[in-house]
Amino acid sequence: KTTKADPTDPECNLFNLYLDEYDTKWTSQINQLDYLVISSGHWFYRPVIFYENETISGCQYCALPNTTQLPLYYGYTKALRTSLRAILENFKGLAFLRSFSPQHFEGGPWDKGGDCVRTRPYRRNETIPEGADLKIHDIQVEEFRAAEEEMKKKQGLRLRLMDTTQAMLLRPDGHPGRYGHMQTAA
Fold first, then answer.
1. Which residues form the Trichome birefringence-like C-terminal domain (predicted)?
2. For residues 170 and 116, is the Cβ–Cβ distance under 8 A?
3. pTM of the full predicted structure?
């Protein structure tokens, strides 16, 4: 479950993320679905205040005084676990967890001069997932395996991992040209 930290401020990019609560906007409709795809990861690279048991447990990229700075992986792991639990408890169809699509910047991150101007895909031996992208992928696989074990106890639900990380790493069109940069970037 997520909300804007200040919904009255259109410029506010800080979000509240309730790591142990379902978002009823989608869980209330889940029983009407035959198929469900979870595709996540990049959203977690933004400033977020984490809540657990209705109390602030920390944040990432928020610089709030007297608030523990927690790594991206902390919130991502717990949010994915909660989402998978919502599916296990409320869904009877076919659910897919699509793995993380790696970033495509060479020469630095997107906001520090990195770019992606490739015109052909990488070859398999030219690149490997690494750093934060690899860690997000590993969390997804680990949480999927745990949910898969729980799923075996449940009738009707089918859960599949659509592991596209390696294939998406090879593609040449990650963030081409000016569209991979902030509007104010030169």
1. 6-184
2. no
3. 0.83
Nearest to 166 by CA among 73, 119, 100, 107: 100
Helical (H) or strand (E) element with 18? strand 15-18
**Token pair listed for 61:** 């990229």
DSSP structure class, residue 30: G
60 forms beta bridges with 48
CA distance 136 to 164: 13
CB 136 within 8 A of CB 79: no
Give the integer Cα–Cα distance in Å for 11 and 22: 26
Helix ranges (DSSP H) in the chain: 24-27, 72-90, 131-151, 165-170
CA–CA distance, 76 with 69 (Å, rounded to integer): 14
